[in-house]
Amino acid sequence: MIIFDNFPLICSFTAIFFTQFLKYPIAYFSKGKNTPLAIIATTGGMPSSHSAAVSALITALILQYGFSSGYVAIATTLGVIVMFDAMGVRRQSGEQGIVLVDAIRELNRLSDKSPKTPQELLSEKDEEKVYPEEMALKKYLGHKPLEVFVGLLTGIFVAFVVRLFYQRTGLL
């Protein structure tokens, strides 16, 4: 099939899918979160699928065309931009989302006209209210540097595993 002839493309997509599915056991064992679809279908988290995709692409291009290839130069430039964006701009957007959620909570708390008893105030501290505005706002969009680094290593690993598969099946 034609699509399987494109080794670098297969490496990139395999890295994306692999890292997205890898997020579930990592989240389950590290944080006890047990919502596989929500974790697998979201951005952010450990490892970075963005980093894995571009590093798998770069590694596959190096394996196929060598370090001095123009393809490697283009992919490496793109990869640096993607990884920097995953850590910087997207992470800052996520942190701003947290501030917005806090501001929405505070505005909703201040808009309550009824006076609160001390017991009601204490119970509010223990139980956070969930407002519809919060549900639409994603809190974490980006990655921590460690998540990007692990994604980079994962992408390199995936490229080598896919290469072994290609060599054994005669596709490469």
UniProtKB/TrEMBL annotation:
Keyword Kinase: no
Keyword Chloroplast: no
Ranges annotated as spanning the membrane: 6-26, 69-87, 148-166
UniProt-listed InterPro entries: DUF212
Keyword terms, alphabetized: Membrane, Transmembrane, Transmembrane helix
Protein name listed in UniProt: Acid phosphatase/vanadium-dependent haloperoxidase-related
Source organism: Trichococcus palustris
